[in-house]
Amino acid sequence: MLGGRPGNSHPAAARTPEGLAPGNLVVARNRKWNGKAHWVVPGRYLGEDAHGWWIFQGTNEFCSRPGAAFYTRSDAVLLVPRNGDWVATFYDDAHPGGVRIYIDLAVAHEWNPIRPHVTEFHVIDMDLDVVRTSGRGVFIDDEDEFAEHRVAMDYPAALAESLEASAAELFQAVTAQQAPFDGTDVDWFTKGRT
Description:
By secondary structure, the chain is of the alpha+beta class. The protein is built from 3 helices and 10 strands; from the N terminus they run E-E-E-E-E-E-E-E-E-E-H-H-H. The chain has a 7-stranded mixed beta barrel. A two-stranded antiparallel sheet has the order 4-5.
């Protein structure tokens, strides 16, 4: 991982979670490079596989960020990968915008147990997204925001270049339906709904 602002980590935080058990509450917290809060999304831990750790985020969960909040209108599963500067959310057919896969380019993955059966997962959202929708197909989103924040928030050049390369690789992987973007999420949706 190239990313991460030094000195912002919680002492117990780690890239690999410890002690998670299926059913545990996982609160995903995103922030921006400048430290400002972004999305907070609750979910239930499902388990892990070769790709990473899977979290079920069900319908009617309360999600918020500064200036916005809503109750989800579809089920989703979040994949926190073992490697790479990204996280992927897979949505079911009920998503109101037809989104099926939404990959956030994100750095500084940290799992932080905060009490028994409750863990926070933190990342720094780096603007770029790889998205697949039922209507538009696969595309890279928020390149304009990334360009603006790259200057305004002073992203390190090596990190910015790495993120652009990762976005291009993820775009190809989603387009080609390479694992885990090949339907791997279906079994995790089933597990989350039982």
